[in-house]
Amino acid sequence: MSYKLSIGIVGLPNVGKSTLFKHLTAQDIHIANYPFATIDQNVGVVPVPDERLKKLTDISKSKKTVPAVVEFYDIAGLVKGANKGEGLGNQFLTHIRDCKAIVQVVRAFENDEIIHVEGKPDPLRDMETIKTELALKDLETVEKRIVSIDKDIRAGEKSAKHNREILEKVKEKISRLPAQAGNEYVTEFAHEPVINELHLLTAKPQIILLNGSESDVSENVKAEIQKSGMHWLIQDLSSPVSLDVLVRKAYETLGLMSFFTTGEDETRAWTCPKGEKAPQAAGEIHTDFEEKFIRAEVVSCDKLLEAARSASSGHADAWNEAKKKGWVRIEGKDYTMQEGDIMVVRHG
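The structure assignment produced for this chain is given below.
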């Protein structure tokens, strides 16, 4: 089963979330100059730009080219007090529980003609509002789980007491989050299934997208975001958005990389975490491949393309040329995949 890269877009109303979504997905969605124009979530599936795909398709004469994809989820704007039912409340946050990362769109530009729910933009204040609402939604999730764990304790379930202790510790840490910089509890409790299964929002990596030009973002704002350890970029959403920049930032934030399979039938890009071993990467292609993995032929994309330039024609010649040069390697179960690897899986 392939790795699904899904990103939730959050922010206050009227900060440019739906505009970003429209740029990225080229979908015709409703955009209006008033809060809560987006009530239902918008979902868009976007191909990941990668110029290597076309080159591999050309040398393999592939019938089909399949890029990796990113799913973007755009939800209704949050406001201060959403957890208490202000605006549309925070119920829409459940739509991004399963996302791998969150892009927080923060308005940096000033424009009196575009309404801001707090009167005027203040990036640090607005980021604090969103951070607080995410934390409060997580507290609600943890508290509900504690109620159900108490039933398990009464039923005599062995692990229930331990799980309750962990939940109480995480609850205490999340309750302090709005006043603290990071989500250190994620590392501390990463091995606890009872926490992982909750898909907590504050545990997700975040990318701050400052909507405006460089001149709209003060050095103080940059310094504070840097201090928080979050990944960030500045993008003027009034002009077309480069998908490459945001996808690269998402890959960097999540520690992901791309590898390929290529042949006459199909050239395809796959996404996997950096440091993944060959059998697990093979499992991205097909679940059976991980369990039945024997070995893999591996060559870097750059080397195969170089071989293609000196080969007479086509994938077979390029592959044979790469083999002659010693660039195609036989790798076993301990091999760690590298960015841009091309893999041919041998399995039982």
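Interim note for the steering committee: The chain is about 40% helix and 20% strand. The first strand starts at residue 5 and ends at 10.
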